[in-house]
Amino acid sequence: MVRWFQTFHRPATAEPVASPGVPEQGPGIPSRLSELRAAVTRIGTTLEEDVTYAELTREAAAQTGGTAAVLRGGAAAGAWYAALHGDAAVLPDIQWAMAAARGAVQDATGPGGRGAASLPSGGPRPVLCVPLVSDGLRYGMLVCARDRAPFTRTEEEFLALLAERAASHIRHAREHERVKGIVGKLQRALLAEPGRPHPNLNVAIRYMPVGQSALVGGDWCETVRLHFGRTLLVVGDVMGHGLEAAVDMTAYRSALRYIASADLPPHRVLRQLDDIAAAEPERRPATCLIARLDPNRGQVTLASAGHLPPAVIDGEGRTSLLPVPVGPPLGTGLGGYEPATYKLSPAQTLLLFTDGLVEHRGEDIDHSLGRLAGVGFESAVGVEGVIDTVLARLDAANAEDDVAVLAAQLHERSPLPGEG
User: Fold this and answer.
1) Are 256 and 393 in contact (CB under 8 A)?
2) 283-300: per-residue pLDDT in tens?
3) Rounded to an integer, what distance in angstroms lies between the CA atom of residue 31 and that of residue 25?
4) How is the beta sheet containing 201-208 ordered, strand by strand?
5) CA dist., res. 218 & res. 243, Å (int)
6) d(CA 373, CA 321)
7) Strand ranges (DSSP E) for 215-305?
8) Per residue in 230-286, pLDDT tens?
9) Is this structure's pTM higher than 0.85?
10) Rounded to whole angstroms, how far apart are CA atoms 119 and 203?
11) Could you tell me if 143 and 69 are in contact, meaning their C-beta atoms sit under 8 angstroms apart?
């Protein structure tokens, strides 16, 4: 298991022999099991590979009273010392350490699973090389050196234990990064862009998933072009978070686009969406708000499936909520959706949003909506400006849930021949 090497500088120094009846113990090596456990638990505290290397060398240097680093890289020309802790001048030459690594790793991948090589380099300076190997995969080599007594068998075994712990955590960290990359690709595939509205309508959409690593969740916005210059605007919120909710969100969006092609009124679109979702027991329930904008008539028709009402911002920047009959969430199979129609002028901005924009844990929903209604806007601000303002005033960056917001403004309609 343990290999001894000899350089051209000086013959290898014999390993010290412990006195009979006296436990062998190198400088600084913990004597109690509790101290050993404490040292091991200080390695691998995060899923960051570089942090684990640094924790390993810091602990190795502290326990042996020397210098520690991790030899990384493949060929000698591309190898380097990482996570150095201590005096770099004490460490052996890179090429020498690589030669030692080839012998040490040969032992490490054998039945024992680990090994160390204690070598004198640059004179009387002892060096201990311990490979970082887990499940047959190599993650570098721990190199320890000092200016005093050679390393003992106890120190070899202790550092091998630390190296084994570090290698296992590094393997898990890399597997975590690999899985996270796959999840990221899946999320980007699910993050489909909304359709393009008619050119008689200005639309802006903003989506902010909760969580640092999430790209997509259960909240969504959609726009669908209809005949005669009309556009269907939709916001939805699937129960839950993360990739599972995003999968169901994609199913709802796909069904919506198919149903909307029949040019049904909003409440009937909701009814068909509800029927489709109810027929799939594994589909998560969702709330949904549909707005059909008709610029030629200057009106909007709304229907809600358990969703919060939209807001409208007038030409002077004042905000109010539009009452909409609320039916049950999609997926219940209960139906019962009703439309509500309002006049909408080019001076007004329609704002659709999910509950993450306004809701706070423990706060009454009426109070939450009241905070939105209290937001004032500058007059003649565009749709992007409206979203920027509402996100900033309601502190959406620290929201407790996913946030999806859609703002829409009608263009000024040109008079038809024979009009005014």
Assistant:
1) no
2) 999 999 999 999 999 999
3) 8
4) 201-208, 403-410, 349-353, 311-313, 319-321
5) 8
6) 7
7) 219-225, 231-238, 286-294, 299-305
8) 999 999 999 987 777 888 888 898 899 999 989 999 999 999 999 999 999 889 999
9) no
10) 70
11) yes
